[in-house]
Amino acid sequence: KFDHTTHVKTVSSTKSSEQRRIRTTLCELYPPLATFLSSDEVKGGLKVAKCVGGIKLLVLNGEPLFFQLDEEGPYIPHLKLLHRFPDALPRWQTDQGAIKPVVAGAKVMCPGLRSEDSMMEDAPAGACVAVTAYGMQSAMGIGWTTQSSAEVS
């Protein structure tokens, strides 16, 4: 489990030019979040938390918005942000039998997406998607596709 006191090394404010660059990049990666990212709430309040293992968190008022696994990697929406903005990413839905394994960290395989109660929004290979379960509105995970939605179905 993540613990702020042991996993976060530093939290710092960023220069306004750096915040603008980050917000522009995020708007390009996640167009449905552009209005939120351009709001006055976000403009002056972004902080960067550097964590153990080289992970960075973008934090607003103590709440994580995005994380970055390495210096060159993209920013990925935090699950709390997806719960606030459920349409920020394409949704790939699994059947109900996959809930416990996925929440425990299992990978989602094509058979779990092909059942008759699953649903996939269009996404290319290499896209970031929200993983949901049949009958649930909130995302239970975030994943990267290795195949496009057309290849899976």
From TrEMBL:
The keyword tRNA processing does not apply. Keywords: Cytoplasm. The keyword Hydrolase does not apply. PROSITE patterns: PUA (PS50890). One of its GO terms (biological process) is formation of translation preinitiation complex. Residues 90-152 form the Eukaryotic translation initiation factor 2D-like PUA RNA-binding domain. GO terms for molecular function: RNA binding. This is PUA domain-containing protein.
